[in-house]
Structures are given as C-alpha cells and as structure tokens.
Specification:
Blueprint lengths: L5 E12 L8 E12 L3 E5 L6 H8 L7 E6 L6 H5 L1 E4 L11 H11 L6 H14 L15 H13 L5 E5 L7 H16 L3 E5 L3 H7 L2 E6 L2 E7 H5 L5 H13 L1
Parallel strand pairs: 3-7, 3-8, 5-6, 6-7
Antiparallel strand pairs: 1-2, 1-4, 8-9
The structure holds adenosine-5'-triphosphate and magnesium ion (MG).
Length: about 250
C-alpha cells in the first residue's frame, strides 16, 4: 500500500447560505478543491469574505456542506478522526466562568483523554506554559484580555497532541510577542511532524512558515500548490497574491 501523502483532501465543496426564506440563497463555496499535505504547513489565504472560515467549518463539519467530499487520512470525518485534529475556530466559544485549567480539562475529556493526577497537571502546565498562560492557570476566562483568550483557544487546540492542527487566524488579536509565540509553536509542531493548516491575513508570517499555499477568491480556489512556486516571480507573498488576484479578476 502506498503512503498517504495528503492529510486532508477536499473535493468539490459547495455551500450556499440563505439569509431568510424570502431571499435567494447565495453560492459561497464554488467547487472548492484542495489538498493539505501531510507533515507540512499549509497557509489558507484570501480576502475578507472569500470563504476561508466557511470552508474550514464545512471541512470540520461544524456546518453542513451542500455537496462535496472531505477525506482525512483517506477516512471520513467521525469521532476517531476528530480526536486526531486540533481546531482553533475564528471565534472560539470559551466558557467564561471556567478557569484556564478547568477549560483545558474540559477539552481534554471531550477529546477522549482521561488523564488524572500528576500526569494531568503536568500536561496542563506544559500546554499553558507553551502559550504563555501558566500564571493565569487559576484565573477565570471572563477576566482574560482578547489576546489571552486567543492563547487559551490555541491551548485547547494543542492539549490533546493532535496530528493535524486547523487554525482559523491563530495570530488574530495577539501583540508582536504573541505572534512570535504562535510562529514558534507552529515551527515546533511542524518539526514534530504535525500537519498544519492555518488561515491568516498576515502574509509575511505565512511566507515564513508555509510550504504549501491554498488561495481562495470569491469562493473559488485560485491556487493549490507549493508556496515557493507561487512566489517564484515576486519578492513577497503579498505581491504574488495581489498579482494572482488581478489575473483572475480580468
Ligand atoms: N451563517 C452565514 N449566513 C449567511 N452568510 C454567511 C454565513 N457565514 C458566512 N457567510 C457569508 O459567506 C461569505 C464568506 O464568509 P467567510 O466567513 O467564510 O469569509 P472569510 O474568508 O473567512 O473572511 P474573513 O477573512 O473576514 O474571516 C461572506 O460573504 C459571508 O457574509
Ligand atoms: Mg474568516
């Protein structure tokens, strides 16, 4: 049997939204197809409203797709697959009455990991330390700043040591130190062989971190291949992306 090269394969994803029963539905994702190569870092780039979050939600089955097929390591999504993924939503729902420690314990149990005692404490401390929140371990999430909440969201995506990380704008709301921290974490996870897929508007960060690039424009995939080839004629990802957009708008 040949080795699986892609951690995730997305084929012909379509999604429409209807604001009310009186309105016509709007076709948001138009035959979206792309691959997320195993053990690599893939960036997901596109303007506001281009369909990044909708694609991620459909892939993760947070919302129903109208049609299309998504495979994870050649399997359909299900509880076993879900446990192998760490997911940071664009707007994480955080239970604000919980402390950071309780929040992570809750997420671990949702992932089917039932550690106790010293092993549980060590894992929680290690994860909070990684995202720079160890000192806030006993504090309720309602007292957290925006950046601290983003760090807590990242901690829940990492705590069960997933094989795939799907992160919708992981740097959002973070100060320069926080952004550096996320970049260090992503580099470290990649070194361990973790497959990473993240969306961002920070193209400089994406350029530094990614091997593969998926670009979306108006709900259509306009690029799905390695980042170096995408940038080959340009000094920066920003310029390469602008040029690609102009080309498809013609
Ligand atoms: N629940 C919904 N109901 C109706 N329209 C929606 C819904 N969710 C998203 N949309 C629409 O789908 C389109 C794509 O939105 P999406 O959130 O996927 O964009 P995005 O690429 O993630 O943008 P951003 O960079 O701003 O996060 C937008 O036009 C948005 O208004
Ligand atoms: Mg989004």
């Amino acid at each position: 049997m040949s080795a699986i090269e892609n951690a995730i394969e997305v084929k012909n994803l379509n999604k429409s939204f209807r604001k009310s029963v009186f309105e016509k539905s709007k076709h948001i994702l138009k035959n979206v197809s792309f691959d997320i190569p195993k053990n690599k870092t893939t960036g997901f780039v596109g303007n506001n409203g281009s369909g990044k979050t909708t694609s991620i939600k459909c892939i993760f089955e947070f919302i129903f797709k109208d049609s299309g097929d998504v495979k994870f390591f050649n399997q359909e999504m299900g509880p076993a697959v879900r446990r192998r993924i760490g997911y940071l939503p664009e707007r994480p729902y955080l239970y604000e009455f919980l402390t950071a420690e309780e929040f992570l314990k809750f997420h671990l149990s949702l992932s089917g990991i039932h550690l106790q005692g010293a092993a549980l404490n060590a894992l929680i401390d290690e994860t909070l330390h990684k995202v720079g929140l160890l000192e806030a371990k006993k504090k309720a999430l309602r007292s957290f700043s925006k950046g601290m909440l983003q760090r807590a969201g990242l901690a829940q995506a990492l705590i069960h040591k997933p094989e795939i990380l799907i992160l919708d704008e992981p740097m959002s709301g973070l100060d320069p130190d926080g952004r550096l921290m996320v970049k260090d974490i992503l580099r470290e996870e990649k070194k361990k062989g973790i497959t990473i897929f993240f969306s961002s508007h920070l193209l400089q960060d994406m350029e530094e971190l990614c091997d593969h690039l998926v670009a979306i424009h108006g709900g259509e995939i306009i690029y799905n291949s390695d980042l170096k080839s995408f940038m080959s004629q340009f000094p920066s990802l920003e310029e390469a992306f602008r040029s690609k957009q102009k080309e498809v708008q013609k």
